[in-house]
Design goal:
It is a single chain. By secondary structure, the protein is α+β, with helices and mostly antiparallel strands. It is about 60% helix and about 10% strand. The chain contains 13 helices and 5 strands. The longest helix has about 90 residues. The protein starts with about 20 loop residues before the first helix and ends in a 9-residue tail after the last strand. The C terminus is likely disordered.
């Protein structure tokens, strides 16, 4: 079954009610047949009372068909149906071939349908206006004409300011005002209700679409975070492994013990990298991702039951308190690095804690990659009343890749771009660039949002 799509509701633009579906058309046909049966029965009763007894039966049959069956199309062509019903109604009353009960119901439904289903509000107003004006003109003409015919309603006197005949005429006017006014009002109200439902459905669809976009954005942000974490982990440990591998190669023949020490450092860095990668990739797992989890374990060379062990060394444990380990590792790997802590440390949010650690890690990685063999580095952590600041400076040369990597389209700027994103996410400020006296500076300041200790 095909359905007509509901047009969007736009402010300032006339909304067009969609065409009825097959079910609605079937209901209209049933309504038309029921009204035809009722009108036929009413015509028979009217003729028994003597109304229209001089008119031929076939004329009444034609009138019943013309009055009722067009209502089967009242939602498809409401204006045309209303005009036909109005003309047939007047003909039936003048020629005395109809009745005055079901025909009024049919005319009411026809005028109502113009307001409820008219596809142009302007034409709906024009058509109903023509019908109402014509009906009242016919009513007033009849009242005025028969006021001079004494044989018409002889029991109603025409004498006096408010004569019985005038009262009869006013009753007819009020009745028709209520009749046509009700058909007009309820038709417009049905149209407004349909428009409100369409608008509600549209807003509901927009909210659902917005939720999907928000969910997709959340997934994209999480992927960027994971990519940034992977970059930090891989860049740091691979650079350490590269330095130690070069050192081991140079001293392998002359100093086997030094080579063994370098290889041990490579082994330790590789294990740390695998642990961090496993903990990070564990965030991608879901209840239904057992197969994918197994593939990740196989790819990383980890046993299937290492989740608990990996959790103890996951990236969430990397924070400001472990910057000293990072400095010691760099110093042990051939980059002279010192650490200075100013102020009293306090607990901070997980975002600030991890971001500060990763920024120091990335900065030291860039020193090893770009500052030259003679470079030295200094790390400072400054605790203030309202902020915590981490700073990494080096005395090496400033190369293009180090100074301009934040805008390098070739992919070398992922590290500094990650720094900027981390600081922005924590609401802090980032300063990086060459120093006047030589070397390079990376300074990140985070607002200090203390995390209170929770008593056990």
């Amino acid at each position: 079954m095909t359905t007509t799509a509901t047009p969007p509701v736009v402010d300032g633009v006339e909304w067009v009610r969609p065409r009825p579906g097959p079910r609605a058309l079937r209901n209209d046909l049933i309504l038309a047949l029921v009204l035809a049966a009722g009108t036929t029965a009413s015509v028979l009763l009217y003729r028994i009372t003597g109304w229209g007894e001089g008119a031929p039966w076939w004329a009444s049959v034609i009138w019943v068909v013309a009055m009722t069956l067009p209502l089967a199309a009242r939602r498809r062509w409401p204006e045309l149906v209303a005009l036909v019903a109005s003309v047939v109604f007047v003909v039936g009353a003048v020629a005395e071939v109809g009745e005055a009960l079901f025909s009024n119901i049919c005319l009411f439904v026809a005028i109502y349908s113009v307001g409820a289903w008219g596809r142009s509000r302007r034409w709906a107003t024009i058509v109903r206006g023509i019908i109402v004006v014509a009906m009242f003109a016919w009513l007033f003409w009849g009242l005025i004409y028969f006021s001079a015919v004494q044989d018409h309603l002889p029991d109603f006197s025409r004498e006096g300011v408010l004569s019985p005949y005038l009262a009869y005429g006013l009753i007819n006017v009020l009745t028709n005002l209520l009749y046509f006014g009700g058909a007009w009002y309820f038709g417009d109200n049905a149209y407004r209700s349909a428009r409100s439902r369409a608008e509600l459905e549209q807003r509901t669809a927009e909210l659902a679409s917005e939720r999907e976009r928000t969910r997709a954005q959340a997934v994209a942000i999480e992927r960027l975070r994971i990519a940034r974490e992977l970059h930090d982990v891989v860049a740091h440990h691979v650079s350490v492994i590269g330095v130690q591998a070069g050192a081991a190669r140079r001293v392998l023949a002359k100093d086997p013990d030094a080579a063994a020490t370098a290889l041990s450092s490579i082994e330790a860095s590789a294990r740390d990298a695998v642990d961090e990668l496993h903990g990070l990739l564990g965030t991608l797992r879901g209840d239904s991702d057992t197969a994918a989890s197994t593939l990740l374990d196989d790819a990383l060379g980890l046993p299937g039951g290492s989740d608990v062990e990996a959790a103890t060394t996951s990236t969430s444990t990397r924070g400001i308190e472990r910057i000293d380990e990072l400095v010691a590792e760099c110093a042990a790997n051939g980059l002279p690095t010192t650490l200075a802590v100013v102020g009293e440390a306090v607990r901070v949010s997980a975002v600030v804690d991890l971001s500060a650690y990763r920024i120091v890690q990335e900065a030291l990685t860039n020193v090893r990659k770009h500052a030259g063999a003679a470079a030295t580095a200094e790390v400072r952590v400054r605790w203030a009343d309202e902020s915590v600041e981490v700073e990494v400076t080096n005395t090496g040369v400033v190369r293009h890749a180090q100074a301009d990597s934040a805008t390098d389209a070739g992919g070398r700027g992922l590290g500094q771009l990650g720094m900027q994103e981390r600081v922005a996410a924590a609401g802090g400020r980032l300063e990086l660039g060459p120093r006047a006296r030589g070397g390079y500076l990376v300074r990140a300041q985070f607002p200090l949002r203390r995390v209170e200790e929770v008593p056990a």
